[in-house]
Amino acid sequence: MIVFDGVTKRYPGGTVAVDNLSLVAPNGKITVLVGPSGCGKTTSLRMVNRMIRPTSGTITLDGRDTARMKESDLRRGMGYVIQHAGLFPHRTVLENIGTVPRLLGWDRRRTDARAHELMEQVGLDEVFASRYPSQLSGGQQQRVGVARALAADPPVLLMDEPFSAVDPVVREQLQDEFLRLQDELGKTILFVTHDIDEAIKLGDQIAVLRVGGVLAQLADPAYLLNHPVDDFVADFVGRDRGYRALSFQPTPRLPLRPERTLLIGETTQGVAQDWALVVDDANHPLGWVEPRRVTGEIRSEMLHRGGTVARASGPLRGALDAALSSPSRRGVIVDDSGSLVGTVQAHEVLNAIEEAARPEVADPTNPGAPAR
Amino acid sequence: MINDVASWLLDPAHWTGPDGVPARTWEHIWYSGVSLLIASLIAVPAGLLIGHTGRGRVVAVNLAGAARAVPSLGLLFIMVLFLGPRLSGDAASLWPSLIVLIVLAIPPILSGAYAGVEGVDPAARDAARGMGMTGWEVLSRVEVPCALPLIFSGLRSAALQVVATATIAAIVGIGGLGRLLIDGQAIRDFPQMVSGALLVAVLALLVDLALAGVQRYAVSPGLTGRTTTRGGGRAATDADGTTDADGIPAPGAVFAGEKELAVRREAGKTEPRHNS
Ligand SMILES: Nc1ncnc2c1ncn2[C@@H]1O[C@H](COP(=O)(O)OP(=O)(O)O)[C@@H](O)[C@H]1O
Ligand SMILES: [Mg+2]
Known about the structure:
By secondary structure, chain A is an alpha/beta fold. Chain A is 31% helix and 23% strand. Chain A has 13 helices and 16 strands. Helix content of chain B is 69%, strand content 0%. Chain B has 11 helices and no strands. In chain B, helix 3 crosses helix 5, helix 4 crosses helix 5 and helix 8 packs antiparallel against helix 9.
């Protein structure tokens, strides 16, 4: 548990970057610090591992005052991930990941074994072990950065905009994997981002900071979207917040329709619909075709791939988006293994939304309490 | 003329004895090596310290610039006048020569070292500190290895200048290949002078080659881009699942949810995928 108690940081120039911040980051949870640029997120994060020293106030880690701990011990006991990964260019992926274990005096064999294990956990193929950072894409570098932070299995992770320098598709993928990893590992995580969507997706609780380093609101995502405390927070969480709130409503039983499917290489003879769904051998959706326009066999390049697919067990937002983005207006729903289970139309999703209860929110008299 | 030089060089008599080519070359290497070593012992730590702390940069730049502007010959005579009476025998000529060479070698080595450290990716340095490296560990494990290419280029440029300039030791009466030039001039033996100049040039080239060899061995391939020819070619630009190695979108990749599932499957290892 990380506890900020009345923490203030005033830089030599007089800038107050963080103003009397009190905050608890509970064990095993992801606490996100979010806010506009310059609101003191990075400063707050870096005060935890004392890369920056607070001007006043204390930060304790499981009850121990971090100011009284030896800096190198404190930092070796916390994973640290930053925006541009900050990998060591002269070291291979494996060596990068093994940095902290080596600092802690592990022998080579144990370090390498651990590094290989981590590469697997963060989804990096073995072939990357002997590569250098310059040979990796941004997304891969971030994976190495996360693996490196986890190497000595620290209970705490500090992450400063770790996914914001990669393109949106890769970012989403990294976020998903990060959540999966956290499900397994249950670390105490302090995560900084300026992106409210990311905060909502990843946070167990979210601390919204305003410029000047003042905590505006601390709440869980659903509560934050439904009950922003003031105009600043309301504005910051954005105009789409009703739509975003759907992210927290698991899909109820949607009235799924069976869909006539075709395989690549089949002909569309006898298919009367305007749009038909093409799947692969494993019944994974590939894309839509317009039978009228297809003469002969269906080929891969004929597919309209524009639509998203949603998991039946996922939140309502995905199902609605699948319906809205589908060229046939029928949203593709799959099971957890990616196999087609049926399609659903937007009005059916809306009905489901209407019928579902509002998302549960925390006690409004105690906005700090996480609802989940 | 070329024939004269060739026959001078091929004459076995010029390759033996205390003023033969091997002995002179050895002296030359010795002066150059000692000067470079002493210059490195001063300039490398100073440069690393300046780069690491970010302090003293202005002083260093100005000192190095001033040192560059010092005329070697002038300094040599001043040193002989100043040190000559205080030292005896060969040392009276040797040390002035070495000092000139050291002064010559310091600026490139110093700027190479501090520019190398200063140029280290700030994110890498930040990460190193954040992982709990002490200042010394950051310097020795991250900054120095990353600075090596520039440290070497400073060293090599110093070596070229020192080997070329070590000929001046002969002016104050001690050895080295410069003797071929000075003695040759005294007796108007032009083939010998040209041979001497040629040998100095060849030596400089060989020293540079040797240092390049050491550099190749010492500098991580991660910093030089030599990785492309090792270990089976360049990595795919993006193996995050959005693109196959050949750049063709993977089937169904635009189906965002499908991709996400592919990632989950991959993570669950039910379907091995190869990223390269
Ligand atoms: N080293 C520093 N010296 C002086 N001011 C700083 C320093 N670092 C950050 N600041 C100022 O403190 C404020 C908060 O910065 P920062 O914590 O980096 O914000 P964020 O990460 O939220 O963008 C900004 O106004 C910034 O200009
Ligand atoms: Mg920041």
